[in-house]
Amino acid sequence: MDMVRARSTPLGRAMAERMKSQDKTFNELVAKKEKSLFGSRVNFKTLSEVQKNQIYADIVLAAGKSNPQVNMQMTQLSRLGKGLIVLSVAISVYEIYNADDKISESGRQLAINSAGIAGAAAGGAMAGLMCGPGAPVCVLIGAFVGGALAAWEMGRLWS
Fold first, then answer.
1. Do 17 and 53 share a domain, yes or no?
2. Nearest 5°: CA angle at 93, between 91 and 96?
3. Phi, psi dihedral angles at 92 (to 5 degrees)
4. For residue 75, is it within any domain?
5. For residue 35, what are the domain limits?
6. E strands along 1-155, which residues?
């Protein structure tokens, strides 16, 4: 689980940690699987070892499945992120096109965009540390503010 989260963004990691902090206990999972497999009138203590193992196996199998709702949300956030990148590149191309010194402006735009990306990663990570795990809104704000401040400052310093 930690290996998968290490590849995620600070926002994705915070969202996953928040969702998992609200998960059910093992006993709640057993009760839910017991009811779905054998009906509501069955007592776990009276089940055979084979039936108990079937419950445990179903819990393990369910843990490996992805949540379709979360997959859809991540797809939408990914599209939003890609859209922001396209917007940023479009603005950079516009600025370069209208500049007198296109080489210098290209370097400036590259520096601003790089600083924005680095600032967003650092801001999101710092917000995650300050707000604690499972604070996706805090991480999102931290990433946005970090990226904007870094890009703004790089643009100011370059001039």
1. yes
2. 110
3. -65, -45
4. no
5. 2-63
6. none
